[in-house]
Write a structure and sequence with these properties.
Structural class: mainly alpha
Number of helices: 9
Shape: globular
Number of strands: 3
Strand content: 5-15%
Helix content: 55-70%
Radius of gyration: 17 Å
Largest sheet: 3 strands, antiparallel
Distance between the termini: 29 Å
């Protein structure tokens, strides 16, 4: 049974306005998706999701479906989700871990970091499935980047996790390495019919763990 985080004990020095803004924008986009109905909603996923075959020029969307250049879907895709559970899980992780990462970077750098991690995560996934014709959506890759950064910044913080029927604390390094190991195992066992972009999670996490050294303020929380 997976461990489910519900909070941490890591205070911040500033209000995480970008974290809240990204959560708000993502929820609004999902509400817009939900308002379209099944057919139009599916078309929106094809319009704004990352389709590796289209991204690499191996396929083309019809004129009536294509809405933005293929490279722009690397950004638009991370604000779309496939359902309430998909949205809720990503936004919960962003809420728990994003505030401390934003605190370490500042608002503008954090926004740039979030977008860059999301783009790199999608590129990693696309590279593993370059002819895939199904769209990939969700903030998972960008949020995974935040988890990688959090591991480097605050390995000794405590994360409160839920494992039915109890809540207990774990060191952040233990929880995040356990989480990353689960993603790697899932990627290794994935089949062609799997609809989760495990490699995007892995790519985002590694990107975040590396990029934090470049995006972090020279003076700020560490450890």
């Amino acid at each position: 049974m997976p461990l489910f985080p519900i909070g941490d004990d890591n205070p911040t020095r500033s209000v995480p306005v970008v974290t809240f803004a990204v959560i708000g924008a993502t929820v609004l986009v999902f509400l817009w998706q939900s308002s379209l109905g099944p057919a139009a909603g599916e078309q929106a996923v094809y319009r704004y999701g990352v389709i590796p075959a289209v991204l690499f020029g191996r396929a083309r969307l019809s004129v009536d479906v294509a809405a933005v250049p293929a490279y722009m879907t690397l950004v638009t895709s991370m604000f779309m989700h496939g359902g309430w559970l998909h949205l809720g899980g990503n936004m919960l992780f962003l809420y728990i871990f994003g505030n401390n990462v934003e605190d370490a970077m500042g608002h503008f750098r954090f926004l740039l970091f979030y977008l860059v991690c999301g783009v790199l995560a999608s590129l990693v996934f696309a590279a593993t499935a370059p002819v895939a014709a199904m769209p990939v959506i969700g903030a998972s890759g960008a949020v995974s980047g935040i988890l990688g950064a959090y591991l480097i910044l605050h390995p000794r913080a405590r994360v409160y996790v839920f494992l039915l029927p109890v809540v207990f604390p774990l060191p952040a390094w233990m929880f995040l390495i356990f989480w990353f190991g689960g993603q790697a195992l899932s990627a290794a066992m994935a089949t062609a019919s799997d609809n989760i972009a495990w490699w995007a999670h892995i790519g985002g996490f590694v990107a975040g763990a590396v990029l934090i050294f470049f995006f972090r303020r020279r003076r700020g929380p560490w450890g």
